[in-house]
């Protein structure tokens, strides 16, 4: 079931579901009202890809809009979808050229209907219908929802695009990994270079410490050599003393042997003397002498 919408009867009708909204809008059309308003649907307009749609707005109170400045603006990009002024269509967004039409039949009745042909998914969104006259600037918002029944179909170009994007992502990950690896290697090389730069200083310091220790060692060796020389000197004197002592011992032994020989001779002489004394006594006692 369809019902007529707008200030007056129009060649475009709406389904019965819009009746309640438009009844509310029609109740606001007070002939005695001095303030001009733009009235739009309070629910979205739906369509599928490739269909034609009409975005509905009208003036309240009803007023001839043929001499007004009427603009339909895409809310997302703030771009002009259609611009009408004093009976002429002016500039608009490139993607809407040749696809939009402001329906002139209803302008005299205050109907600001925008006809869009062959809608696409990118046309979904909010659209502002703005009107400017001597009394000021008024606007209303209309929502358009475009569905794509074939969006679930996987096209070969989408598969190819997914593969390309995957390869690009993998390449990006590899590049990032290689970059980080190169950065880490560069950092390690810088650390090694810093160590190599410090190495001569460390070596010079070690050499100085070694030379200092070597000097001390040489000094200790010289002292030890001096002590050895003193020891050898003392040893030489000790050997000389030992030789003299040995010589004295030999002289003592020689003297001792002489004394032993002298003692033996003396003992022999004593024995002979004793023997000589015993012979006269034997004769006196009547013993024969031998």
What would you say this structure looks like, in words?
Keywords: Coiled coil, Disulfide bond, Glycoprotein, Immunoglobulin domain, Membrane, Signal, Transmembrane, Transmembrane helix. Its main location: membrane. InterPro entries: Ig-like_dom, Ig-like_dom_sf, Ig-like_fold, Ig_sub, Ig_V-set, IgSF_BTN/MOG. This is Myelin oligodendrocyte glycoprotein. Residues 31-147 form the Ig-like domain. With 290 residues, this protein is an alpha+beta fold. The chain folds into two domains: 2-147, Sandwich (Immunoglobulin-like); 154-273. It contains two helices and 13 strands; from the N terminus they run ββαβββββββββββα. The strands form four sheets. A six-stranded mixed sheet has the order 4-13-12-7-8-9, with no helix packed on it. It has a three-stranded antiparallel sheet with strand order 5-11-10, with no helix packed on it. It is rod-shaped. The model is unreliable at 9-33 (pLDDT under 50).
Task: Provide the fold topology.
Layout: E1 2-4, E2 13-15, H1 19-27, E3 37-40, E4 45-48, E5 53-55, E6 57-60, E7 69-74, E8 79-85, E9 88-89, E10 100-102, E11 114-116, E12 125-133, E13 136-147, H2 156-284
Parallel strand pairs: 4-13
Antiparallel strand pairs: 1-2, 3-6, 5-11, 7-8, 7-12, 8-9, 10-11, 12-13
